[in-house]
Amino acid sequence: MLDTSTISVSAPGSIMVMGEHAVLFGHRAIACAVDKYIRVDLTPLDDDQVIIDSALAEYFGSLNALHDDQRIRFVLAAIAHFQPALPSGFALKITAGFSHTVGLGSSAAVTAAVVKALAIYSGQPDTPEAIFTAALAVVHKVQGRGSGTDLAASIYGGLIAYTVEPREVCPLPGLPPISLFYVGYKTTTPEVLTVVAQRSEQHPALYEQIYQLMDKTCCEAEAAIKQQDWPALGRLMNIYQGLMDALGVTDANLAQLVYQLRSSPLINGAKISGSGLGDCVIALGQDSHLDVPFESIPVNISAKGTVRVN
């Protein structure tokens, strides 16, 4: 008889601390899970229906004939990935504790949560390693590329150092209080990567050197975190921001925000968090007296990764 008990999974959002762009070329990255969560509740059905209830879309279809809906393409790609092993249809309720418009890795979090729920439902391994492998395959299926850094942070939790190949996920001790600000718009990561790729074709050797400098900066930042040397980490964040600027992914609003944050003696360093051309800036430290004309997003590091909650 089909087990009709609901499978509930929670996955945290994530932010990049350092390693943007260079991580795609095999270099080091640092990211962390944050205390904003996406919850997925999967309830088995006794037929082949697939029902999805989320803020982005209401979906009704058949497990054996999924139809496309770009609004929930990561969810549908995850279902397709597990489809041969799924015992029957199901209802999937997705509840987000943060907006998908803000750069907190919502696509990675929902992918991680759905993949874990489907793995449990289909009797597949649901260790962090197994979930990461399946979720990264889903992301690559949807968008063609992606380092998986945000996935790793969301799945493993805490603060991590990460390398794509050979895959390495290393837990790091935590950070001091951080600040995160959203400039009010973002360009999707694939779009930003296309812009950078086009520019790099004009100066390929120089761009390769930028990525190598990014790697060295990130490795020194990892050492600073292990030593809890926050002034050094702040300086390295500022250096990395200069390299992001060299790639051409800093716009006027991001630059204004970065330099306003750095004007405070309570802020050790500030840089773009994510691929750039919009989205967020992360600062090491907090200053409630700064009059910053952008949305502040209160976040703390979440030690909890993607977990079953029932």
Explain this structure to me?
37% of the residues lie in helices and 24% in strands. The protein has helices at residues 73-82, 106-122, 128-143, 149-156, 189-200, 204-226, 230-247, 252-262, and strands spanning 7-18, 29-44, 49-53, 58-62, 90-96, 159-163, 168-172, 178-182, 269-273, 280-284, 295-296, 307-308. Strands 1, 2, 3, 4, 5, 6, 7 and 12 form an eight-stranded mixed β-sheet that branches. Strands 9-10-8-11 form a four-stranded antiparallel β-sheet. β3 and β4 form a beta hairpin. α1 (73-82) packs parallel to α2 and α2 crosses α4 (149-156). The longest helix has 23 residues, at 204-226. It is globular and about 60 Å long. The mean pLDDT is 94.
In short:
The protein is α+β, with helices and mostly antiparallel strands. The chain has helices at 73-82, 106-122, 128-143, 149-156, 189-200, 204-226, 230-247, 252-262; strands at 7-18, 29-44, 49-53, 58-62, 90-96, 159-163, 168-172, 178-182, 269-273, 280-284, 295-296, 307-308. It has 8 helices and 12 strands.
Write the layout of secondary structure elements.
Elements: E1 7-18, E2 29-44, E3 49-53, E4 58-62, H1 73-82, E5 90-96, H2 106-122, H3 128-143, H4 149-156, E6 159-163, E7 168-172, E8 178-182, H5 189-200, H6 204-226, H7 230-247, H8 252-262, E9 269-273, E10 280-284, E11 295-296, E12 307-308
Helix pairs in contact: 1-2, 1-3, 2-3, 2-4, 3-4, 6-7
The chain-level structural class is alpha+beta
Q: What is the terminal-to-terminal distance?
A: 21 Å
Residues in helices, as a percent range: 25-40%
List the total number of helices.
8
User: Could you give the count of β-strands?
Assistant: 12
Following the backbone from N to C, one meets helices and strands in this order, namely EEEEHEHHHEEEHHHHEEEE
